[in-house]
Specification:
Layout (H helix, E strand, L loop, with lengths): L1 H23 L5 H24 L10 H21 L3 H11 L3 H50 L6 H13 L4 H11 L7 H27 L7 H26 L3 H11 L6 H9 L3 H29 L1
Helix pairs in contact: 1-5, 1-8, 1-12, 2-7, 2-8, 3-4, 3-9, 3-10, 4-5, 4-9, 4-11, 5-6, 5-10, 8-12, 9-10, 9-12, 10-12, 11-12
Length: 314
């Protein structure tokens, strides 16, 4: 049972290691990290999100397993904010506790283990995963940032704070292409080939580029003091999150391959998009970088265990 997990996870580890090496041999210098982050955040990510959402037909999807998944996500996210307070650091940790690497690791892993039926469930999750988590995460980040500004002597009214947060959450490189793609999909029009091919090329570059960037940042980060908080995030993401999901799923009667595919998604390591958020908001960058690397390494051991548990439960 561990072969599919290793097959999917090892390329991810390799890309992070390659980025680390590239920085150590000065192929990528510290001054370039911010520019590479902007490239990923403003070009590659919107291309992938728009193209993914532009093929989503809402009426054809079964959202019941997805609702159970996001119920567990909500419990983890809210619990994190309650423990660490309503601030951008807590928001970064909450997003890291809940945002899975569904595309780079989830698709090949679920496809190998559960076939087409499992993939349909996972792709349904992926179609709304970014919209729900990155969209709501942006709102939380903006509200937390506005609250911190207020506490620093730059107060503003609640209505203005909410309005500004909502505006910044929509006119933003993450939610905007998701919403635009979703609206375009409902027209029934296909994306013209002359547009679709560049979007496909840009989107396919996102995963490898983001993982290389994690390795590059890792090389320039002093992780000695970050090991403990990063490992805490890694344990919550790869152990606590899937256990909590399984409990919620069992209570709500979700069974079979849909339950197994969602449990596997919950147990995936932290997605690289969390780092992009931490970089954009200037918070917990070293901690998030470390937790992505540590959770990916830890998942080499936890995912096979999750697969064995799921085999007994189904």
């Amino acid at each position: 049972m561990d072969t599919p997990a290793l097959t999917a996870l090892l390329p991810v580890v390799l890309l992070i290691v390659l980025g680390f090496i590239a920085a150590k041999v000065d192929w990528v210098r510290p001054a370039a990290v911010k520019d590479l982050t902007n490239l990923v955040f403003y070009i590659l990510t919107p291309a992938l999100l728009f193209r993914t959402m532009a093929s989503v037909k809402l009426g054809e999807l079964d959202f019941s397993p997805i609702l159970v998944y996001f119920l567990a996500v909500g419990l983890v996210f809210v619990g994190t904010m309650l423990v660490f307070g309503f601030n951008t650091l807590a928001a970064a940790r909450a997003l890291a506790h809940t945002f899975s690497n569904n595309v780079m690791i989830g698709i090949p892993l679920v496809g190998l283990v559960y076939g087409q039926e499992g993939l349909v469930t996972l792709l349904t999750l992926i179609s709304v995963h970014a919209l729900v988590l990155l969209g709501s995460g942006t709102v939380v980040f903006e509200l937390a940032q506005a609250r911190q500004f207020s506490s620093e002597g730059r107060p503003q009214g609640l209505a203005r704070t909410l309005g500004q947060a909502i505006k910044n959450s929509v006119i933003h490189p993450i939610p905007l292409p998701i919403i635009a793609g979703l609206l375009y999909a409902q027209t029934g029009w296909g994306i013209p080939g002359v547009v679709d091919k560049p979007l496909q090329l840009l989107g396919s570059a996102l995963g490898p580029m983001a993982l290389l960037l994690v390795g590059i940042t890792l090389a320039y980060s002093k992780l000695g003091s970050m090991i403990r908080p990063a490992m805490r995030i890694a344990v919550v993401k790869t152990v606590v999150h899937p256990i909590l999901f399984l409990g919620v799923a069992w209570l709500l009667g979700l069974r079979g391959i849909p339950m197994a595919a969602m449990a596997l998604a919950a147990g995936l390591p932290v997605g690289a998009n969390v780092y992009i958020f931490s970089q954009r908001y200037g918070v917990a960058q070293e901690e998030v970088t470390a937790c992505i690397a540590l959770s990916t390494g830890l998942s080499l051991f936890t995912l096979p265990v999750v697969l064995l548990v799921l085999e007994r439960l189904r």
